[in-house]
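Tokens in:
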């Protein structure tokens, strides 16, 4: 199963789940729904020894069955991720609860969706490059995953070369079906599971595996992508062969399983993050998201729970979602999260068709069956819509062209159990097709013409097929993928999102071996490694990168680590031209597609300058968004009054909406940003501001030189953007780069000026001005 079909499955699950709460239960009582309830702990009466008892008592007082001990209604008590609990309530009970002492707000417990041998080199990692030895391969850092569990016997989780478990670790390796405490080691140091929310929402759901064991493959894949140890000689049926390793090969892995075959609920995800915070996780990697969020950040369980994580110093990397390429399609864009989009890497998997004439045609392929086939007779079968006819030429290589859509053609060929097929198509087909269950080649119109000419000229046309070929160094790479969700972020448009892109397409990593990875005629195929695609795969790359930065700079805040990764990202691909957008005819991508660019670890450990931020800064920012006291309390847990309101979060990127900003002379828009940079490079260093792109916009940086006298000194500057209001849907972009005089350091920040209107339909203006 490839990533896209996995998401289809999770979406279907979601539909089922949404319907179920509206069914009245068989006992005839009012339907019950589960909720996440935020409470103000400052209101807790002194008679209660702890929050749990207070919540139980509150529930008991609103219960329809007076005097009942409502512990079965209480799903979880939360203590670190938010103040409150989750519970199953009838409408009347919910109404009564809303009048209770300390009640702040509630949201329905809604479902979420789930969203490498070669990639570490592509990130600029390798023993010679210094990042691994300097960080001791991330050994001191614990990365937590909220995912589908983990397959502990995977080779990626061996603990050779890794020292003893950090003493501060408070997590556990919980036993359950197929999982023993001894399943953990010095690499995989924790595994817990959370399914009370799922069971409350789907009382009839059967759990395939009540433990941290991964039966889907996704969690094994993400965790080994971030922190898998070295495994020699792996491949996916011959594709991508080499040594597999995570980005931080010696970082510790702690799995919090909250994603189940039957769905994933907010209440379980919050409980998982709650535990990860308490256990002492340093970096959180989240490859799931909440897509149906409204405009209030506090309705998004991941935004809420990760605010608490950020306050405790955890770095959070999360996938931007696979809902691209429209603007406003991004998830997980809260300002305290590092939001990761997905790009391609410089690697291609392909097959080759060699004709009797000696001519060869290559085509993208992930066919996992026998790698060699032929020579076979070639027969042209037109649109391939006649199954009996196709059956009559079994043993030959059929060629199909036009009329029917590719989908129907492939289906007919499969039904007829053809020996091999070549499909001539003008559309570039997705991985779903190239991972075909029978020997198939999808070729474009130009190669198709070569093939047709050969068939016409030759008396007995023949061809051979070869599969499982891997090519490295393909250009251009990286490119931003079609599926990668794009900014701005609906709930918080004033921060430019995504933050950056990382490899997401066809990432090779460990897999749960009892979950099929492909299908051929003889049945399902299984593998301990799998190639998977999605922003789910991009986020753990960044989590691993953050682990390496944190190993070298253990005292850096999550914002400082994010800044280091963002300001050192690159904007040029391997043809030295701007990174391109596959969804937009390979034209240059904008920061709304790729943020600061593609992650480059060889610079991130020593960025020279950082844009730091503390929890107070985020609170001032939320105040700047004019949230009401109860809304603030739901996110911050303790703050309901604003001391300072400011949208100037100290963020290493900039976005201005021309229609909303103040006017200046002649109806121009004017937007000012204040930022503070910290010198983490040499003691005495001077930086000069350089601005690129932003055609038609007046850009001022004051001062335009920063002179640091010592390390850790902070200096402030102001960026002013001024220009005409843009016409509808325009995106103008560029960068501000602080370049150190010696040339050793430079810190780059993307700038977007746009007239995009929230949730407006996607129109890519032809006048998109490029850098
Ligand atoms: C749940 O299971 C019970 C007992 O087996 C059954 O009576 C009920 O119809 C089931 N409910 C749903 C929604 O499937
Ligand atoms: C990554 O950073 C290194 C060190 O500055 C640089 O040499 C390399 O070109 C960068 N990679 C890309 C793809 O820009």
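Residues out:
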């Amino acid at each position: 199963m490839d990533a896209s079909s996995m998401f289809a499955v999770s979406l279907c699950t979601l539909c089922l789940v949404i319907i179920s709460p509206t069914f009245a239960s068989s006992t005839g009582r009012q339907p019950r729904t589960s909720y996440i309830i935020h409470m103000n702990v400052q209101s807790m009466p002194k008679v209660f020894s702890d929050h749990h008892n207070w919540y139980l008592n509150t529930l008991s007082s609103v219960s329809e069955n007076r005097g009942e001990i409502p512990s079965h209604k209480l799903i979880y008590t939360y203590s670190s991720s938010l103040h409150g609990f989750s519970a199953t309530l009838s409408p009347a009970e919910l109404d009564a609860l809303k009048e209770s002492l300390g009640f702040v707000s509630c949201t329905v417990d809604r479902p979420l969706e789930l969203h490498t041998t070669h990639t570490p080199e592509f990130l600029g990692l390798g023993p010679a490059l210094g990042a691994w030895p300097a960080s001791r391969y991330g050994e001191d850092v614990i990365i937590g995953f909220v995912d589908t569990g983990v397959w502990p016997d995977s080779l990626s989780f061996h603990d050779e070369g890794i020292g003893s478990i950090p003493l501060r670790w408070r997590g556990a390796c919980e036993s359950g079906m197929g999982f023993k405490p001894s399943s953990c080691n010095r690499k995989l140091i924790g595994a817990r599971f959370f399914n009370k929310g799922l069971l409350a929402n789907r009382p009839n759901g059967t759990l395939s595996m009540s433990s941290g064991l991964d039966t889907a493959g996704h969690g094994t894949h993400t965790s080994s992508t971030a922190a898998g140890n070295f495994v020699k000689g792996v491949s996916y049926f011959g594709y991508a062969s080499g040594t597999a390793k995570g980005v931080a090969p010696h970082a510790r892995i702690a799995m919090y399983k909250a994603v189940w075959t039957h769905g994933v609920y907010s209440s379980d995800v919050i409980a998982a993050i709650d535990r990860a915070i308490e256990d002492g996780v340093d970096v959180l990697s989240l490859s799931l998201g909440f897509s149906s969020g409204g405009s209030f950040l506090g309705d998004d369980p991941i935004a809420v729970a990760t605010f608490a994580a950020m306050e405790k110093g955890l770095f959070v990397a999360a996938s931007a979602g696979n809902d691209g390429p429209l603007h406003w399609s991004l998830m997980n864009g809260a300002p305290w999260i590092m939001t990761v989009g997905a790009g391609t890497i410089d690697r291609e998997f392909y097959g080759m068709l060699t004709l009797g004439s000696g001519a060869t045609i290559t085509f993208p392929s992930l066919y996992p069956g026998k790698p060699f086939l032929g020579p076979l007779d070639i027969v042209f079968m037109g649109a391939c819509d006649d199954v009996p006819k196709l059956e009559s030429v079994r043993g030959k290589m059929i060629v199909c062209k036009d009329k029917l859509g590719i989908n129907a053609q492939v289906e007919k060929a499969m039904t007829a159990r053809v020996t091999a097929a070549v499909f001539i198509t003008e559309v570039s087909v997705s991985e779903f097709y190239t991972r075909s269950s029978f020997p198939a080649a999808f070729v474009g119109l130009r190669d198709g013409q070569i093939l047709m000419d050969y068939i016409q000229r030759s008396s007995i046309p023949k061809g051979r097929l070869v599969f499982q070929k891997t090519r490295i160094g393909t250009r251009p790479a990286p490119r931003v993928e079609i599926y990668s969700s794009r900014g701005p972020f609906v709930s918080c448009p004033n921060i430019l999102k995504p933050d950056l892109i990382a490899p997401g397409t066809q990432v090779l990593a460990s897999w749960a071996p009892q979950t099929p990875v492909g299908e051929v005629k003889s049945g399902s195929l299984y593998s301990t490694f799998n190639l998977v695609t999605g922003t789910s795969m991009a986020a753990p790359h960044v989590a691993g990168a953050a682990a390496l930065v944190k190993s070298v700079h253990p005292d850096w805040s999550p914002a400082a680590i994010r800044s280091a990764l963002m300001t050192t990202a690159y904007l040029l691909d391997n043809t030295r031209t701007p990174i391109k957008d596959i969804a937009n005819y390979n034209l240059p991508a904008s920061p709304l597609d790729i943020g600061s660019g593609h992650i480059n670890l060889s610079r991130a450990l020593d960025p020279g300058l950082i844009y730091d931020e503390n929890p107070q800064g985020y609170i001032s920012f939320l105040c700047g968004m004019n949230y009401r006291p109860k809304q603030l309390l739901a996110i911050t847990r303790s703050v309901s009054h604003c001391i300072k309101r400011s949208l100037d979060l100290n963020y290493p990127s900039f976005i201005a909406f021309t229609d909303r900003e103040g006017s200046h002379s002649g109806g121009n828009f004017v937007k000012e940003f204040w930022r503070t940079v910290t010198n983490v490079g040499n003691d005495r260093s001077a930086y000069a501001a350089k601005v690129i792109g932003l055609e038609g916009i007046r850009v001022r940086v004051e001062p335009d030189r920063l002179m640091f006298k010592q390390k850790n000194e902070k200096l402030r500057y102001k960026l002013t953007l001024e220009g005409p209001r843009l016409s509808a849907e325009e995106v103008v972009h560029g960068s501000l780069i602080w370049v150190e005089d010696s040339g050793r350091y430079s810190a780059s920040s993307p700038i977007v000026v746009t007239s995009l209107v929230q949730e407006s339909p996607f129109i890519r203006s032809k006048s998109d001005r490029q850098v």
